[in-house]
């Protein structure tokens, strides 16, 4: 019988090989711009502030390093996730691969698609030492470094519209019972209690992540990651699924949530225009709203996810994306590899890079920026997120990135059915237990 490691490697190779066939069938055009020259390529995600920061960083780098040029392209988040897997599987991906760490990165590692950066760390210690807490570990697989943090990341938090709460005479929820009570309060006022971009599906997952953690603690999902038999059947998982369906049945989410997409920030728009009172979203939401609707920022509140009465999870635990990572393609030429390594060492989170995030309203989890966080133009939000991130007992990477790609796809598919009330908690558990191993 194959070992678990062997099975994982075969699964990764099979997945990436299948994606390569898709690319071949489409004419193999995805990686054409990589070319055979020494120019390195980079793919990123559209949207402020990260796109703006990257564009400026790459422009400054290329201007100062005429012999180490980098060409960057951007794609919508949902489209990018499938596009990059296809390209990497066909050995036509970019030199610098934007990723989330976790299971997706492990699939690349098992298939030999990304460069082991560990040997380079001795001469380039800042590649890891500049990052705080669990952020640097997000690019580590089996004790080896394959990804370098590239952005501010940020935990998922509960945002709320201060004006709507003041008009209703209520406070943001500290417990699950208080959140459920607020559903009725805002529904009676003709306001959607919670905005949800359900079409994107990963937004729904955040509710399950936090509920499972608050009810049963971090160990529940760790048993899933470890591939323990029947791990999805933990009582905390079932309780969380039941609570989600109770929230849906109570009218907790904006009408038509299953057709609302996150890529166009429609969920954020509901919150800032007063059509929804709350929004559970990634930490980058603050910076995005600051960019898109600066006049609303003073009315944007934020609190940790509520505790669940009777739960055993630590309320300081976080879920989300500690930081996205850059990996280097194993197919890169020596020239492209050296350009990528030099860029990661010298330009990522240099002073202009850090300042750009601070100006955008984000607090990157890098060491030694306390003075900057108390400087002009900074906010309580930035200091709060920095404190949460560096002080969390556990910071769980988003499940769809922590899990292997096939298991993550099954999670999103089945959870969508739970939110649509088309699948029971027990059916969800059975479907997900079937993905173990």
TrEMBL record:
Name the record gives this protein: Extracellular solute-binding protein
Domain of life from the UniProt record: Bacteria
Species for this entry: Pseudonocardia aurantiaca
PROSITE patterns given in the database record: PROKAR_LIPOPROTEIN
Signal peptide: 1-24
Keywords noted in UniProt: Signal
One matching Pfam family: SBP_bac_1
Lineage, top ranks: Bacteria, Bacillati, Actinomycetota, Actinomycetes, Pseudonocardiales
């Amino acid at each position: 019988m194959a070992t678990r490691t062997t099975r994982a490697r075969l699964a990764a190779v099979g997945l990436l090989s299948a994606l390569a066939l898709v690319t071949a069938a489409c004419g193999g055009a995805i990686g054409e711009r990589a070319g055979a020259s020494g120019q390195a390529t980079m793919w990123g995600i559209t949207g402020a502030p990260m796109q703006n920061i990257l564009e400026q960083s790459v422009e400054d780098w290329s201007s100062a390093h005429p012999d180490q040029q980098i060409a960057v392209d951007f794609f919508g988040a949902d489209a990018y996730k499938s596009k990059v897997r296809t390209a990497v599987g066909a050995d036509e991906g970019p030199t610098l691969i934007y990723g989330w760490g976790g299971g997706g990165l492990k699939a690349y590692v098992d298939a030999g698609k990304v460069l082991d950066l560990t040997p380079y760390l001795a001469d380039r210690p800042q590649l890891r030492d500049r990052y705080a807490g669990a952020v640097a570990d997000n690019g580590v697989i089996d004790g080896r470094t394959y990804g370098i943090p590239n952005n501010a990341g940020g935990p998922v938090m509960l945002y709320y519209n201060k004006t709507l709460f003041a008009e209703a005479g209520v406070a943001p929820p500290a417990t699950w019972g208080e959140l459920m009570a607020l559903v009725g309060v805002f529904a009676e006022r003709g306001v959607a209690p919670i905005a949800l971009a359900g079409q994107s599906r990963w937004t729904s997952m955040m509710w399950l992540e936090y509920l499972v953690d608050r009810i049963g603690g971090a160990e529940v999902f760790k048993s899933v990651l470890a591939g323990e038999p029947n791990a999805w059947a933990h009582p905390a998982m079932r309780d969380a699924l039941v609570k989600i369906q109770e929230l849906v049945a109570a009218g907790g989410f904006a009408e038509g949530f299953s057709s609302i997409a996150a890529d166009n920030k429609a969920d954020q728009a509901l919150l800032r225009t007063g059509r929804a009172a709350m929004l559970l979203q990634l930490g980058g939401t603050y910076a995005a709203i600051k960019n898109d609707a600066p006049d609303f920022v003073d009315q944007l509140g934020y609190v940790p996810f509520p505790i669940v009465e009777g739960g055993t999870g630590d309320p300081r635990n976080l879920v989300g994306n500690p930081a996205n990572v850059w990996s280097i393609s194993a197919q890169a030429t020596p020239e492209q590899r050296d350009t990528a390594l030099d860029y990661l060492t010298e330009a990522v989170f240099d002073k202009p890079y850090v300042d750009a995030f601070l100006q955008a309203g984000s607090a990157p989890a890098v060491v030694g920026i306390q003075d900057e966080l108390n400087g002009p133009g900074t906010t309580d939000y930035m200091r709060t997120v920095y404190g949460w991130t560096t002080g969390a007992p556990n910071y769980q990477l988003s499940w769809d990135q922590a899990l292997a790609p096939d298991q993550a796809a099954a999670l999103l598919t089945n959870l969508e059915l739970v939110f649509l009330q088309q699948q029971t908690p027990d059916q969800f558990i059975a479907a997900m237990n079937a993905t173990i191993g």
